[in-house]
Structures are given as C-alpha cells and as structure tokens.
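Job type: complex structure
Entries:
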Amino acid sequence: MSVSILPNASTRQSFSHVRSEMQALPINPSPIISPSDISYLRSLSVYVSPPLSLHIYELFTAARHNHELDGTLLTSRAHKDAGSLIRVQRLLSGDSTSTELIRSYAMEDKVGEESSDGLIDPGNDIFDPTQPLKHDSSLARGRVQGAILSDSGSNSTGNTDSTFQLGSQRMDVSEVDIARIIPRVLTHRLRVRDGPDHEILSSVVFPAVVTGSDKVESHRRTVKEILVQIIGET
Amino acid sequence: MSSDTLSLPKAVVITGLEYAGNPAQRALLQALSDQSFVLEDDPDTVWRLPPDFMVVYVCANDPWERPKIHPSLVNPFSSITRIPAQLTQITISWIVLL
C-alpha cells in the first residue's frame, strides 16, 4: 500500500533541482559511531531485569492514570519505544557498573552529610531533558569495554583465556537509565488537563453548565513538574 | 516500477508541521506507516523509505500541551530533546525522533 502526495508547483521545481543534486551529495565522511562500532554494540546484550521492567510499566500506568494528565496517547508503541531507548541509553551513555544510585549514597556517606530524605532529587540531575545525552562514541566504547573487563575480572579470575565472548556479555539496565529516558518518551505524548472540571470524573462534582461565578480557578502544573513527582514517588 | 536509481535520504528534519493542513499531516503519517509513497506526478514510481528512516521534527515547546500536530502523528515520534534557543521569541524547541 502507498499514499499519493501532490506537491505544489514550487515544490516540484525545487524537487527536480534536488533530484539532480542529490546524487552528488557526499556521504558523511565520519559518522559519529562507526559501522564497526555499531555492529560491535549490537553484539552486546542489554538486560532489563523483571523488577525494572515492572517499574517501567508502573511509570506508564502512573502517567496514564494521573488525574491531571491526559494520557490517551500513551500507546503500546510508546512503551516499546521506551524499552528500546532505555537499552540504547544504557549502552551508549549508561554507567558501566549500574551502580550510580548506590554510588551517590556512598558519596553522601563519605562526605558525612545526611540527605534530608535520603532520596535523590529527580528534578536535578536525573530528570533534565535540557541536558543533552552524552553521545561520545569513543567514551561509550571505552565504558563498554570497561564493563566487560570488570565483569570478566570478577567472574572468572582463574580463567586465563583472554578472548572475551562478546555475545554472552550482559549489561544490566539501571533505574537511573529509566529515569533519564522515560520523561523524553512521555513528555510530548502528554498534555495537562485544563482544570479539575476537565478530569475524567469531574461530572460528579461539576455541573454540565458552568456559570461565570462557578468557574474553577486552578493552578496548572507543567508536564515536567508532574512527571518529576511521578518518577519520585513510583 | 520501483525507484532504485535514486535513493532517498535516511533522515529528514521538518519544522512548521503544525501549520501544514490536516491532509498533509495524514499523508505524512500514512507514508511513515506504509514506509512508501507515490508522487502524484509520477504514479508509477513507488518510493520506498530506506530502512532506519528517521524524521526529526522541530517545534516550539509548550510545557502544558502536546505539539500541535495531528494526535496520531505524535505517536510515531519516539523521543524528545529540549534545546534552549535564544534566537527568537521561542525559548525552547522540541526535537522529536521517529
């Protein structure tokens, strides 16, 4: 099956111009991640443990059923995308040992300062879509190899065979990877309801006909604020 | 006949999609779901999108609303990144990946 698209006259002209030029375009000489790196990365398996997979489901459900949010576009495709993107995040810029959360606790202990509630504030470093994801391929590769070295070192110290079986290496997704990716997957699919009178069960409280004096004044929180709360509480 | 002589680019960056009409947005959606399209000029040629084809959509960010495109068109976009842009009145932009 295919679809018909009718370009207007000006588009057609520019298209025929592009047609002649397109073949002359050089292929990007240095891709960010080289093809050999990509095939190498594909050979690694990233594992989402059942509790964390459940955690992803919980975050989706919490967002979908949040009374302030309209979650009709949180589809199964969104969930599938989230799963893939979380694995990619783990592979390319995740922490090699999946111990980010533990380490931050350890750091706190070292400094001797007790955090007020013992929780990491997801509003600061974890949830920040303004921060670009770290996509340094050489860095990623270094980390990946670091992970493999540390894994194999801890597993089999007696084994002197230095050839690593890449296919059998496993990387575990951490909660931090999930917290980094989930807002990016959810934010553009959500909108904040106009007010309490637009929520699902609002007709129980609010009459169908609203007069001027009955208008509900409410503070609309942003999608980001609500997601930060959801991730913090789930 | 399929067009093998000229390959389509692997990625397209779109902006202003919210100003395109409903038919145009639906056509884009259908092209993405079919992975192919036909130009009305040349109905015999079926253009196939390359595997791993990617669309990047740039638009202004509204912290309370979805991008103002057709709701079904939101779903193909997997992920967003916010980029602070100082050039115009728009302070934050969306980038959405297929």
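Summary: Residues 87-94 of chain B have pLDDT under 50 and may be disordered. The interface with chain A takes residues 6, 9, 27, 30-31, 34, 36-41, 43, 46, 63-67, 71, 74-84, 92, 94, 96 of chain B (CB under 8 Å).
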